[in-house]
Structure formats: structure tokens, C-alpha cells
Design brief:
This protein is α/β, with parallel strands linked by helices. Helices cover about 45% and strands about 10% of the residues. The protein folds into two domains: about 160 residues, Rossmann fold (3-Layer(aba) Sandwich); about 230 residues, Dehydroquinate synthase-like, alpha domain, CATH 1.20.1090. The mean pLDDT is about 95.
């Protein structure tokens, strides 16, 4: 480890308390009661509400004599407009706690609602620079229990809230330790109703979290922060996050194709939920890098693409967006740490790779898996052409949170080449 005065010697690692297992959701009323809450707002989206899960949770909370309502206006891939609508609803009463039920869209929306109902200001005040003001929360937030119904985003474990800013045609994030949920309740049985392509997309997000965290810049090669109390949430790869990422890669490589092929496969659903929780605790500390940075403009600038299994609206689901440039990214980042990239390919595939396989090993494994589960092939699938490359590069260059942990120096030329290869 490098111990020079200018180089980091400390990493941080944190995760919320986790309640995991089939039937874990049955205990949520008791958990809300243990918080001492007298009122609770459930935040979800219309599709998840149709599954009956939010109403079931409401009944469990009411049974503990706690006031509970359901807000189901969350947008899939939340925008600044949809979040502001949720905030307006939540401000009508003073809630003691929040429950987020759904994928990353619901959990991220709940994080933003919690922030903006406890703090003055607007979303952009808190967004990471250079897009936003980078203001840190300074007041206490309310307890937030996150209940993921997809095996994907890991938002139940992280400090991160991602928003699609419609006027900017760009996604951006808010990241602070106070946004991390108070508790995550992960019940794999809630994922049984996921359509095949939603399972595939959210599963690719799991893989991308684990791969990016595992290959990002090591924490002890970063510069020391000027203020040790303001270390970034993404501290770089570290020995604790590595363990979780390795588990996520082994599980997702084996069970994602099975979950996509048969949504009623309870073992596959269980193991993918475990993979998602593992990847979330990994990347929530180490950090995601270039596939996620690229994904924000890919999703934010889309015009006409409709995704199977999702609402009938122009959108690139997050898992599809992060996977769209992943093969090209990992081919480019290989030289940053060849051994780490080869090991990731082995964990994901169960095969053995050597330096002879080189930079193509991980992209090959990743591309084969994506074909097996029916992921769109290339940015052209979303309607992008060479004419859009400058806009995509510009959007990526603004993602300072991710760019800080890329294992190679990111330049416009490098990004242009990655996007060109990914068309």
C-alpha cells in the first residue's frame, strides 16, 4: 500500500441493516413499529401497486396501529417532474417514516422525497457538480425502509439517488450518506412477477455494479481528501467491497439466465436477489465507473425507443443503458488492471482465462451472456447514430462522481472511441 502523504490510506464502507429471505416482507409492520412511528407513507409506482404488494404492506403497517397511505405516482426512470410531484404529495402531511416499494425508480424517488421534505431547496441544489450545486444535507432525514421488487439497482443499500432532468436531456445523481435507507427488506418472492426482459435488464445492472466496482481504481491510489470528513461516497475498490462483488459475479453469471428463462424458478430468483444485495453493498462504497457514466446520457437523450416489458414511453431502461457500452469499456480499461479483469471474467463464466486471452476475455464473456438473455445489441438499437456521439460524450464528461474512479484517464477521444465501438 502506498503511504505517501498525498495518497489515500483509508477507505470507508457502510450498508444499512438488511433483512433478507423468503417471507421477510411479512415482518415490515413490526419494523415500522420498532421505529416508534405513528404514520408512514408508502412510495411506489402503478405497476408495482397492481401486484398487490404495496397494499399488503399497508395492511401489515395498519395492523400495528400506524397510519399508512400509498402514493403510487412514481415514474419508471424518475424525472425531476415526477419527483417534484411526489414531494408535493408528501408535503401535505408530516410523515414519521417512508417505505419505498419497487425498483430503483421507487427507492430513488423516496430518497429524494425524504431529502426535500426535510430540507429547503430544489433537486439541482444537491446534485453532484458540475451539473448541480453539490450541497450536502445538513438536517436529519426521516427513517426510510426500502423494499426492492427487482433484483437490480441495489438502491436499497446505497447513498445514491439518480434523476432524469428533462430540460437537460441528462441523468444526474445526488449522493450523500444521509440518503442511505434506514433498513433494506429483501424478499425474493416479490420478484416472481417480473417480466422476462425486466428481469434481464435489472440483472445486467447487478452485473455492471459488480464489474465496475471490482475494476474501479483502488482506494489507495487516489489522492487524500483535503477534509477527511468529506471523503466521497465512491472511495474506490477495497478489500471489503471486493468480497461482495465476487459473490455477485458468481451468482449472477449462473442464475441470471435461469431467472430470465423461467420467472417461476424460485431458486434463481432467490440467488439473483442475493446477487443484487451483494453488488449493492459493493458498489455503494467502491463506486461505479464508465458504463454507468455513459448510461446517463444514453438514457437521457433517447427519443423513440420503447423497451419490452416497460411502460409504453420513450426510455432506455437503466440496465440496458449501462450494458450498452460495457463490453467496449472493459476492453479499454483492461490495461488499468489486467489481472482484475481476467479474474472478473472467470467469476462470471466459471471458465479459466490467462494473459493470452487479454483484453477480449471479459468483453467476450459479457457479450455472450447478453445475447443469451436477449439484451439489445448496440446503441443503434436505441436509435443512436454517429451524429449523436458528440452529445453522448458531452453527457458522460459531466459525470464527475463516476469519472473519479475510472481506472484509466478518461479523455474525449477515448469516450468517442468507446461510443463508436458500441454503436
Amino acid at each position: 500500500m502506498n503511504t505517501e502523504d498525498s495518497t489515500e490510506t483509508v477507505f470507508t464502507w457502510a450498508a444499512p441493516p438488511l433483512k433478507f429471505g423468503n417471507g421477510a416482507l411479512d415482518e415490515i409492520g413490526l419494523e415500522v413499529a420498532a421505529l416508534g412511528a405513528t404514520s408512514c407513507l408508502i412510495i411506489t409506482d402503478p405497476g408495482v401497486r397492481d401486484t398487490g404488494i404495496p397494499e399488503r404492506v399497508r395492511e401489515l403497517v395498519l395492523a400495528c396501529r400506524i397510519k399508512c397511505e400509498v402514493f403510487d405516482g412514481v415514474a419508471v426512470e424518475p424525472t425531476d417532474a415526477s419527483i417534484n410531484a411526489a414531494v408535493t404529495y408528501a408535503r401535505q402531511q408530516d410523515w414519521d417514516c417512508y417505505i419505498a416499494i419497487g425498483g430503483g425508480s421507487a427507492i430513488d424517488t423516496a430518497k429524494a422525497v425524504n431529502l426535500l421534505t426535510t430540507h429547503p431547496g430544489e433537486l439541482l441544489d444537491f446534485v453532484t457538480p458540475p451539473i448541480g450545486g453539490g450541497k450536502a444535507p445538513w438536517l436529519p432525514l426521516k427513517p426510510l425502509i426500502a423494499v426492492p421488487t427487482t433484483a437490480g439497482t441495489g438502491s436499497e443499500s446505497t447513498t445514491i439517488c439518480v434523476i432524469d432532468f428533462l430540460g437537460l436531456h441528462l441523468k444526474a445523481g445526488i449522493s450523500h450518506a444521509k440518503l442511505r435507507p434506514t433498513m433494506a427488506i429483501v424478499d425474493p418472492l416479490t420478484t416472481l412477477t417480473l417480466p422476462s426482459q425486466v428481469t434481464a435488464s435489472s440483472g445486467m445492472d447487478v452485473l455492471s455494479h459488480a464489474l465496475e466496482s471490482y475494476t474501479c481504481v483502488p482506494f489507495d491510489s487516489k489522492p487524500k481528501p483535503a477534509d477527511p470528513m468529506k471523503r466521497p461516497a465512491f472511495c474506490g475498490s477495497n478489500p471489503i467491497s471486493d468480497i461482495w462483488c465476487e459473490q455477485a459475479l458468481r451468482l449472477a453469471g449462473k442464475y441470471l439466465p435461469l431467472a430470465v428463462a423461467n420467472g417461476d424458478d424460485r431458486e434463481a430468483r432467490y440467488q439473483m436477489a442475493l446477487a443484487s444485495a451483494s453488488a449493492g453493498t459493493g458498489f455503494g462504497n467502491a463506486g461505479t465507473h464508465l458504463p454507468h457514466a455513459n448510461a446517463y446520457p444514453v438514457a437521457g437523450a433517447v427519443k423513440n425507443y420503447r423497451a419490452e416489458g416497460y411502460p409504453e414511453m420513450p426510455m432506455v431502461p437503466h440496465g440496458q443503458a449501462v450494458s450498452s457500452t460495457a463490453a467496449a469499456v472493459f476492453r479499454w480499461t483492461y490495461e488499468g488492471d489486467p489481472a482484475r479483469h481476467l479474474r472478473a471474467a472467470e467469476l462470471l463464466s466459471g471458465q479459466t482465462f490467462t494473459a493470452t486471452d487479454g483484453a477480449d476475455a471479459l468483453p467476450h464473456v459479457l457479450s455472450e451472456l447478453m445475447r443469451k438473455i436477449g439484451m439489445p445489441e448496440g446503441l443503434r438499437s436505441f436509435g443512436y447514430t454517429e451524429a449523436d456521439l458528440d452529445e453522448l460524450v458531452d453527457g458522460t464528461m459531466k459525470q464527475s462522481r463516476q469519472l473519479a474512479v475510472v481506472p484509466r484517464l478518461v479523455t474525449r477521444d477515448a469516450l468517442y472511441g468507446i461510443f463508436q465501438e458500441s454503436l
